[in-house]
Amino acid sequence: MNDIPVHRSRPRWISVVPLIASLLAIVFGALLIIRPAIIAPAAPSPGLTGSVNSNARMPKEGEVVPDFQLATLDGRTVKLSDLRGHPVLINFWATWCGPCKEELPLIVDAYNWNKAQGFRVLAIDSTAFDNLDDIHSFVAKFNMTFDVLMDSDDAISTSWNIMGLPSSFFVRSDGTLAKVHVGQMTADQLNEYMKLIVTN
Domain 51-197 carries which CATH code? Predict the structure, then answer.
């Protein structure tokens, strides 16, 4: 007796595999096309905060520091270029930054000691990542009588590629950058950097 061949039908899911593969290829191709638009960083919004004249990079020593203007904690406006003729320390900080809490008393002392020589401090806090009530309390606690600036949309920090806090920029009276220090400064370091911009 001859065996009758049995024809087994293929599972139905096998027939849809090519369709799924085609759909995945289409989706993957579309993502490759639109991906740059998705990940492209948004440009800083213009206005009082974020009015920056620089490319997205940290200023280099020897260069003229890019101009900017920001609102102060007490509602005034400070523009960096208006401070030509003054040595300036630009310090990026935050209330939640532990090293900032240790460093700021040194900056307060340096300011009080050198302000008679026209020394200015611009302490920039990114309020996009901080709390105004905490800032007011912090400023009062550390007796920060210099200019405390509000980078409310994080435009300056982003444009200057600030990668860590605190970050300090020592600017000569002619507007050129004398020294950059990323991280917490010691008293000795601060004193050495001050000698680069303040002439007694």
Answer: 3.40.30.10
